[in-house]
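Re: export button greyed out
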Amino acid sequence: MKRVIEKIRAFLHGLGAMTRRQLRFSLMLVGVGWGVLREAIRPNSWRRSVRMEYRHSLRAAAGGGIVSTLVVSALTGFGIVAQTIYWLNVVGMEATTDSILATVLVREIAPVLVGIILLGRNGMLGLTQIGMLTMGGQMRTFEAEGIDPFLFFMVPRALAMTLASFALGMLFSIVSLSVGYIVCWAENIVTQSIWSFLYDILRALEPRDYVSIPLKFLLSGFFVSLSCTLTGMDVTRDDDIATLMPRGFARGIMVLMVINVALTVGFA
Amino acid sequence: MRSTEPVIEMRQARPAFDQAGLMSVAYDLRLMPGDCALIRSRDRERSGLFGDLCAGMVPLYSGTLRCMGLDWTQLEVQEQWALRARIGRIAQIGAWVDMFGTHLNILTPVLHHTTTPEDQLVEEASRLAVRFGLPGLPTVAPGRLSTLDLRRSALVRAFMGDPSLLLLEEPVGPETPELLDTFLGVLTHARNEGTAVIWFARNDDVWNSYLKQATHHFLLLDEGLIPMRGV
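Workaround output, generated via the alternate export path:
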């Protein structure tokens, strides 16, 4: 009996500790997000060093992510858009093509895939950089120089990633739909022009989608960046890159999932 | 005209942490503009933590710690960042960020805290770099510089922007006599302009020739700052 109680206690202890750990990061993420927005609207925050970091981050996220986005969107266009159009034609449901593409691709898949591209390409790199700086004592040096690491790293990177996510998301949607159309057009499955094809998909979007889709892109970039940078800054003495990277990746994926599900449900 | 306020003033300042390195004992130190304190400490980490204490990065259990007349504990966070901008520092741990070039490592603090035009800052940094024996402002990553060039670059960064207080952890070694001479020249000039200096070293050899010009001489031990004779 005593052993059973001990086991239950240990289980509850583990469960409680895990819950506290998870909640701690979520609350920190919300607080840091609010802090970034507050700092972003203060003109005094936008010093030369912060502007420099913002330009560098934007170039890395948007410029550096273009090729990856183009490749993934072309594959998506080939694999999902073309197949959707083809099979809906086969079963005689071509009238629903536009709404299905608008719902599945533009509203659901594009934000997730763009978020994953940004997480893998920029978020993990940022996590490694910040984690190394924190573990190596360089963050302390920034503080000693009177430079707030939050202002210097967190604010410009989060805002740059937000903008990059929106831009890459739009690129992704247009390219994947266009590639899908081109494949079907080459196989004589569709006969209309590409403009009318894109126009039909736009018409299939509901008014709320004009808010929810950009919001998904913006929030994905914002919180993926915050999650990675915060994980990098929140290292303990026991951490190294081997423990930091899987944790950062898991948190990034979790953030993407929560944002997409919450916005889908919220705008349903 | 020089300020009559002490640049750094510790009165029974007892740091509130239990980290290894710097003991939580009461420290007393008072430096006026132009003063120079030589502090011998065999422990590099302890020197760094004492530097952090001077820069208001360590909370206090008791006592007071003022920098340029301002009590660190009474300042808002933004004011603390701004005050630290007046401190030039050479640190031994985590001093360089390899993801930026050395020039950005040097210029970032002044770019962040001042509105001085960039070309003027580059000119000042280049002039200091040449003075310390570099061919110009280094643009490669700090990890690619030799130890000596990195020392020179650290000196350039510390003296940039005419700081009011210099916290120098082993800025030069006895193995580089030319750099030592240049450093002492620049240091003396900065002191004449009103900069207070705290110079940490592991042994006295490096500052033997400068001992008479210093105003304070201490040993940093577990027991605190122990004044030494001879100054």
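Helices of chain B lie at 44-54, 77-84, 102-113, 118-131, 147-159, 177-192. The button fix ships in the next patch.
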